[in-house]
Amino acid sequence: MKATINWLADPAISFTLIILVFFLVFPITDRLEKISKRLKIDLLWTNTGGLIALGVLVLFFVWGLTDENFRLIVTKPDNVPIVGLIFLVGFFTWLSMKQARENDNRMGQGGQPLEASDKSKVLVWPDLIYIEFICLILATVLLFAWSIFVKAPLEEPANPTLSPNPSKAPWYFLGLQEMLVYYDPWLAGIVLPTLIMVGLVAIPYMDTGDRGTGFYSYSGRKRAISTFMFGFLVLWTFLIIVGTFLRGPNWNFFGPFEVWDANKRVVLNNVNLSEYVYVFLLETGLPRGWLIREIWGILLVVGYFAVLPGLLAKTVFRNLYERWGTVRYSTFIVLLLMGMALPIKMYMRWLFNLKYIVSIPEFFLNI
Amino acid sequence: MADTETTTGTPADGGNGAGNGKKATRERTPFAESAFWRSIFRSGVPRTRAARMMGVLNSVFLHLHPVRLPKHAVKVKYTWCMGGLSFFLFLVLTITGILLMFYYRPTVEAAYGDIIDLGSQVPLGIMREIHRWGAHLMVITVWLHMFRVFMTGSYKPPREFNWMIGVILLVLTMFLSFSGYLLPWDQLAIWAVTVGANMARAAPLLGHEGPGAALLSIGDVNFIHAGADAKFALLGGRFLGGATLLRFYVLHCIGVPFIVMIFMIVHFWRIRKDGGISGPT
Lengths: 367, 281
Prior knowledge:
By secondary structure, chain A is mostly helical. Chain A has two domains: about 1-110 and about 130-150 and about 170-250, no CATH class; about 275-365, no CATH class. Chain A has 14 helices and three strands. In chain A, about 25% of the residues are buried. Chain B has two domains: about 15-65, no CATH class; about 75-275, Cytochrome Bc1 Complex, Chain C (Up-down Bundle), CATH 1.20.810. Helices cover about 55% and strands about 0% of the residues of chain B. Chain B has eleven helices and three strands; from the N terminus they run αααβααααααββαα. Chain B is globular and about 90 Å long.
């Protein structure tokens, strides 16, 4: 059982499973939504479904805590927030989707969303003030209890000559650190985070119109919500969980029930695209000049960002392109392709041991 | 002032009623209606509808809120209270942070020892715990607040600019937490920041090991090198050391909170100016 879970947790497998399940749980097209409905996945967004999911998660943690390796990593003081994060994100995803589905059903029967059903107003004093007051007290109690029972971590005094293995960033940046496996620091640490920010800021300028404002709903906004959830749950939260719980010494992968063995041997046989072309395919050996050496990778990257958007505008996204115009569409497609570049590179690594598509160490430029 | 039921507060003077107990009890004004009380809370005890509205309007703190709200908007089910909790945690962190600053000295020699003293020598030594766990919690509440705003479509016009401010606040929250991470000056702290600093070193154009850094040069004069790049700016030196600690301390305690406060003011102001909390049209 534990061996199976360790095997399943491997990023290549768990990531694939999560992607498959994700688009059934958060269907992005009408057809997927129909399949999702037929599979009765909506039952997850009921009280019973939520309780069962919670129960499974709690049981997994309780059972997992009986294992020494699992306990060691989960109860590390600075990892406690992430355990909290898993439950909180899960709960609030459920809460929002439950209300969204209720509203979808109401509107499907020609009604209004629940939020619009009672247009009356209440006074802030006392109706809002007391809710805020109770929230504030509960948060304070939680914070005090947490502070009393869990000591803040303090390791040995700083020693610049002794680097711990693994060295980890604070947990909220571990998604970025996990990206370092697949991309060089200039992309994983600088360009991609910047684009996440730009992408978030750009959301309201791409998803315009006030349709669907002010109430929970899924059907009317499924493309927007599914895309956002993919970024938030899969590319951000899931990578944080992997980076925190499943990455041990030398940033090697370790299953949740595996010993963090610093001597674990992992074969590093990753190969650049240029080597695939010149060494394996043409059998000529790498050319001396970097431009000729990397031309295939450069063409691929340029094609991905310059040609592919045009092709998509003529095919899959034709309606979108016509409605949105060039500027809005281009912004959207570049951000989308950048976002998709991460899973694409992950799979190229897992399937072909591909290291770099473009590798020009002469300029520190590796993609 | 719109209130009608209250008498204009005559100050209850205690000496007057001596001797006649019955009369004294009748004339004694409740404290909440005394001139002293009314000088602080102009609208009196909020018993009537009018007084409750005036109470919110007249209070500098409560008037962040409107006087009335649509029914769906006060429900925890709708708001998750996450924005409010983020602000509350910011206040908790400010207060505990000020207390911690009494004891903590940002020098390589003193920092680690002061952190130990915070737990062992200072009375009720959980201030650092509250500060640290509160910071982690704030990162989570800010994420969840963004999640809620997204799920209710509340970023859509006319609120798109406030969403942008929110994204900036989200980034600043994480940077606040990150800059505080270094201050205990233990192994966890310096190596976590090293991971971050090494990314700065690889910044395109601005990091000395980043792509394009060589472009920023005239003749054989390089503008970006190990002694002048993004990493150097972050660390205050080529390597992590005392200068980094001071730099992070100033940013953590004054620099970033100052910027965060400005953006929070705009964020709260714009909620009201963009039509208050979102709701179905």
